[in-house]
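Tutorial, part two.
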Amino acid sequence: MKRKRILIIDDEQSLLESLEMFLSESGYQVESAPTAREGMERITSFNPDVIILDIRLPDRDGFSVLEELKRHKDGKPVIMITAFHDMETTIRTVKLGAFEYIPKPIDVDELERAVRKAMKLSAGSTQRETISLDTSIAYEEGRIVGKSGPMKEVFKAIGRLSENRVTVLIEGETGTGKEAIAKAIHSHSAYKDQPFIAINCSTIVATLLESELFGHEKGSFTGATSTKRGKFELAGEGTILLDEVGEIPLDLQSKILRFVQEKEFERVGGEKKLRSNARVIAATNRNLWKMVQTGQFREDLYYRLSVATIKTPPLRERKSDIRPLVDYLLKRINRDVGMGIKNLETRALERLIQYDWPGNVRELENVLTRVAMETHGDIIVEDAIAPLLGPKGRDDAVDQPTSGEVSLEEFERKYIVRVLAKTQWHLGKACELLGISRPTLRQKLRQYNIPNRD
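Running the prediction step on this input gives:
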């Protein structure tokens, strides 16, 4: 079996000898060069799999060598070493695309781990079965991606509802794109040039929500130093999205019912009746009908909001959409974080398709962003994705119940509790694992009566 090749470029002779001996004993074929010029020549003649490069060289600094390697060579992983391990050096090294950065004096165990990881990357293009990302997909803000049967039904509903002004209730789990659907209805309507205003009813204190929706008059309560127009008034002829509508208090629901029925409202502290022709779209991840039956949501408001309904399918029910979603999301991620990812290991895509995605598209986007930030080169590999995908990806991950054993709500509740236990009830870390925002997590704690220990 052909031994893997390592080239060390460093002018410190004693270090060269030590590293050559250590790496050779570890089974690698090693050559060295004391200058940048000789190192560049050896790269051509020796064709190493991994390059270990010192930042301080007698004829050039390692930064310029790294830049040249990244511009003209074939993407071999470069491990930078230096005695100057300050913050600025580390940041510059990472920004220039080094695979790893190891300070002197060198910890050989740390170096060997870095070499092993780099070798896996170097072998990726020749030993891994990969697929190329579809570069023909154009990124458009707010675009909804999907070719599956369930998504075709959603697209049909958007087309029908953009032709009228009826109220719409969009139901679906967190992260399934309910706001994107509401925006699509608005942007394809005759009122697309009018405002689209979204308000998350779970993130605003109940006492302030009425003012946010309807506005208030100057002096109507402590702190009301001027008259404020509410969201219904600001929306005009456009659309207002009441996201997480199930979180609206019962006393405020009656005022929203009046607006939906009569298109009339009053500002807080005001007496003048105001009118707005804004279209109302509501969204929720809760079972509103069950809330009606338990007295938590007004039945008459439920019927007014659900004149038309759209149920957003969870990602686990449209797994054929995962591949185009990966292409689309990585297009944006490459743009936003300055990455150049072009390929995906076939096994990595298979792992993404096998996973059930409790956090849906939002969790998929979170996973891809985290993997992209840690990827060296242009290939996303299975090893990078696996640790982020729960029990199918790592031995120590949070356990998930089998979805067939419990209801969907109970499944979600148990999963959240186990993630919280795994993170020792650190809400920030739990949000990262779940792929949801902190306000959404707090809302779910209330929904499932989970004590908040934060």
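Residues 392-406 have pLDDT under 50 and may be disordered. In part three we will examine how such features are distributed along the chain.
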